[in-house]
């Protein structure tokens, strides 16, 4: 029916999207977290109160100020200016920062290993929103 | 004990937005009748709205004969006077009888606590049989299941209102006056509460948490609070619950650097810590803050991270509250204080 005549434009738009995403990162290099994990990650963040010290996109309150804002975190080169920004390092850091980076002023937080991976997934998934 | 209970992101939000809605989810006899009354009112509201809508429909679209009847004198006498008169009188009598049980004199063996409203937190004192304070705490009340607890309500500044929706209705906290409210929890759990009377500034962040324990857990909780006068052996039988808490002794913790910083940074002027020179009364008593479930009056979970965040910048978390942000302290100093406070259990 009349949707038919839009098809070519749709295809062009889809191609353009593909091209744009391809420009941003070489395919495969970017870690795309599972939405289920990010959902659980957000719940874990709320339950542990990370936002008491950090501004975290997706959390309206509180917006703590004594730690760095986690906005645009997934584009940061290093975690806490020290560790390569990989999901494994991030999960370790949010659970036990002093062990991941000796001398870190962020304390260990009451997260299980599983939860810390979900929290890392949430922080990586941020710019998809 | 707590890990097996529901662990909401925040008790204050649970009180407002929890599911099922805590107002309709009674956990004890004093909330029961309130909920029955609420459902009856909701039911009657629906019935009356239905009748009015039907009458309106008839008045606009109904056949001529029905419309004439609806506009007649008889309809006014029945629908306008007799029906509401009978129904409202009936509901009033029934409602008053139902809620009369809420104001009955409380049993002699009831446990007694005093909860005082401050801008913007709750002071909690456990009382003995003579009304003397045996333990001070804040923003959190622990009770054994199945036992009525008389809550004496005060205010130190403006009018607040104490409300733990799962356990009872609201009761005002009025300066210069004591109101009494009885609560009872019949199943163990963690019940969020709020201040239900606007009291300025961060009123919306003035929360509370009530925790009901099975008798055995209750005794363990008591023991965990470093009681000086041990619970008498004959009372320490599961199923038997001492109504009155023994007096509490406190030793002060081992993180001496944190303790020193606490005393030197001015915290002691506003906060009391049992067994130390800190005796301020402006802020919550911190004698047991390490074992408390929340910080900032029911709004944050309690862990090392949130403790540091609260002390370092409570104004970002609860804008306008009466504790200054300690952003001049270094991260190491904040952590030392947090560790010492964690030891106050
Ligand atoms: Cu209030």
Layout of SSEs?
The complex is a heterodimer of chains A (129) and B (345).
Chain A lengths: L6 H18 L10 H14 L29 E2 L3 E2 L2 H9 L1 H4 L12 H13 L4
Antiparallel strand pairs in A: 1-2
Chain B lengths: L10 H7 L11 H33 L2 H7 L2 H28 L10 E8 L2 E7 L5 E6 L1 E5 L4 E7 L4 E4 L7 E3 L5 E5 L5 E7 L11 E7 L1 H10 L31 H9 L2 H4 L23 E2 L4 E2 L2 H14 L13 H12 L3
Parallel strand pairs in B: 1-5, 4-10
Antiparallel strand pairs in B: 1-2, 2-3, 5-8, 6-7, 6-9, 9-10, 11-12
Helix pairs in contact in B: 6-9, 8-9
Can you walk through the features of this model?
Chain A has a two-stranded antiparallel ribbon. Chain A has five helices and two strands. Residues 1-6 and 15-28 of chain A have low confidence and may be disordered. Chain A has helices at 7-24, 35-48, 87-95, 97-100, 113-125, and strands spanning 78-79, 83-84. Chain A has one domain (35-128): Immunoglobulin-like (Sandwich), CATH 2.60.40.420. The model of chain B is unreliable at 1-8 and 227-249 (pLDDT under 50). In chain B, a hairpin with a 4-residue loop joins strand 11 (294-295) and strand 12 (300-301). A five-stranded mixed β-sheet of chain B has the order 3-2-1-5-8. Chain B is built from nine helices and twelve strands. The longest helix of chain B has 33 residues, at 29-61. Chain B is elongated and about 90 Å long. Chain B has 345 residues and is an alpha+beta fold. In chain B, helix 8 (304-317) packs across helix 9. The A-B interface holds A 43, 46-50, 52-53, 62-67, 105-110 and B 7, 9-10, 299-301, 303-306, 308-310, 312-313, 316-318, 327, 331-332, 334-335, 338. Copper (II) ion binds at residues 160, 195, 197-199, 203, 206 of chain B.
């Amino acid at each position: 029916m009349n949707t038919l005549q839009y098809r070519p434009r749709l295809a062009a738009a889809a191609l353009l999207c593909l091209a744009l995403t391809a420009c941003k990162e070489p395919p495969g290099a970017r870690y795309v977290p599972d939405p289920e994990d990010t959902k659980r990650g957000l719940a874990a963040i709320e339950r542990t109160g990370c936002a008491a010290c950090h501004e975290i996109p997706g959390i309206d309150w509180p917006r703590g100020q004594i730690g760095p804002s986690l906005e645009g975190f997934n584009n940061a080169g290093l975690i806490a200016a020290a560790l390569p920004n990989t999901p494994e390092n991030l999960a370790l850091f949010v659970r036990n920062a002093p062990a991941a980076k000796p001398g870190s002023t962020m304390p260990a937080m009451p997260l299980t290993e599983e939860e810390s991976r979900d929290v890392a997934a949430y922080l990586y998934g941020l710019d998809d929103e | 004990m707590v890990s097996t209970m529901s662990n909401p992101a925040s008790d204050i939000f649970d009180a407002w937005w929890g599911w099922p809605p805590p107002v309709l989810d009674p956990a004890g006899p004093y909330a029961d009748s309130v909920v029955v009354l609420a459902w009856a009112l909701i039911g009657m509201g629906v019935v009356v709205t239905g009748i009015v809508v039907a009458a309106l429909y008839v008045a606009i679209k109904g056949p001529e004969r029905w419309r004439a009847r609806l506009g007649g004198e008889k309809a006014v006498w029945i629908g306008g006077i007799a029906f509401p008169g009978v129904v409202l009188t009936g509901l009033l009598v029934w409602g008053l009888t139902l809620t009369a049980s809420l104001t009955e004199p409380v049993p002699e063996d009831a446990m007694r606590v005093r909860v005082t409203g401050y801008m913007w937190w709750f002071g909690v004192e456990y009382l003995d049989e003579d009304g003397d304070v045996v333990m001070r705490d804040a923003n959190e009340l622990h009770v054994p299941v199945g036992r009525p607890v008389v809550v004496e309500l005060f205010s130190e500044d403006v009018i607040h209102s104490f409300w733990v929706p799962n356990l009872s209705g609201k009761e005002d906290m009025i300066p210069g006056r004591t109101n009494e409210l009885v609560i009872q929890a019949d199943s163990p759990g963690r019940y969020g509460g709020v201040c239900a009377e606007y009291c300025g500034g961060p009123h919306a962040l003035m929360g509370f948490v009530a925790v009901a324990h099975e008798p055995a857990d209750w005794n363990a909780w008591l023991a965990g609070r470093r009681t000086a006068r041990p619970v008498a052996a004959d009372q320490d039988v599961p199923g038997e619950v001492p109504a009155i808490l023994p007096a509490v002794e406190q030793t002060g913790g081992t993180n001496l650097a944190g303790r020193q910083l606490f005393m030197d940074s001015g915290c002691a002027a506003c906060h009391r810590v049992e067994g130390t020179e800190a005796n301020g009364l402006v802020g919550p008593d911190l004698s047991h803050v390490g074992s408390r479930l929340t910080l900032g009056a029911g709004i944050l979970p309690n862990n090392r991270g949130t403790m540091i965040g609260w002390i370092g910048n409570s104004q970002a978390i609860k804008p306008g509250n009466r504790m200054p942000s300690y952003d001049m302290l270094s991260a190491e100093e904040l952590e030392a204080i947090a560790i010492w406070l964690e030891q106050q259990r």
